[in-house]
Design a protein that fits this description.
It is built from five helices and nine strands; from the N terminus they run αααααβββββββββ. The chain is an alpha+beta fold and about 210 residues long. The N and C termini lie far apart (about 70 Å).
Length: about 210
């Protein structure tokens, strides 16, 4: 009886090919979105780009919406029409980080007074996605101002001094001591108040989205 040696399955090779294909698909989706962004920035319609590149409207639409994996030739024709160099094919959609330094001097920090809190805007004016506040909650608050509020985004609070109570709709109140931190969705109706008859100072970071 002749014994036949079984060859091991080339799973490693298949996995590598699958991984490479997945990476190519991700790159394509990013490039398709960037292509559409560049077209709109020029005020071009899909029809106009089709006329410039000589490609069908349906082909361009499929590429922009990631319903078609374009060949290098197709992409080259589109890039040429949009005035891009060949290198853009590999770098499209990859954001290059920009170094920056922002300084907000004490005299430029905005102070805001409210019946339930006074705060200083340390960062985040002009509709920034992230707002950083130094807030002081007073020891005493009138009953008419003890109302839960909710808004988009999420908040991170770090207690500097005093004790802070956070009331949340449908949840037990949470008490924070100095150096405690909380992070939660701002869409949950909530209300902050100082405890123990003393003011409470916190650093609050509000991300406007998500």
């Amino acid at each position: 009886m002749v014994k036949t040696k079984l060859k091991p399955a080339k799973t490693t090779s298949r996995r590598k090919k699958a991984s490479a294909a997945a990476k190519d698909q991700v790159a394509t989706s990013v490039q398709g979105a960037q292509l559409r962004k560049d077209r709109l920035a020029r005020g071009w319609s899909v029809r106009h780009l089709a006329e410039e590149s000589g490609l069908a409207i349906s082909t361009i639409s499929k590429i922009e919406n990631n319903k078609m994996v374009p060949t290098v030739d197709l992409y080259s024709r589109l890039l040429k029409s949009l005035g891009h160099s060949p290198e853009w094919f590999y770098d499209a959609g990859r954001e290059k980080s920009k170094q920056f330094v922002n300084v907000l001097r004490l005299q430029d920090q905005e102070n805001v007074q409210h019946p339930t809190v006074s705060h200083k805007i340390l960062f985040g004016r002009n509709k920034s996605d992230v707002v950083v506040l130094r807030q002081i909650f007073p020891a005493q608050i009138a009953d008419e101002h003890r109302k839960l509020m909710a808004h988009a985004g999420n908040e991170l609070v770090y207690v500097i001094r005093g004790r802070l109570q956070i009331r949340m709709q449908g949840r037990e109140s949470i008490v924070l001591d100095p150096e405690d931190t909380i992070h939660f969705s701002s869409t949950i109706p909530h209300f902050y108040e100082a405890l123990d008859g003393a003011d409470c100072e916190v650093l609050l970071v509000w991300r406007r989205r998500g």
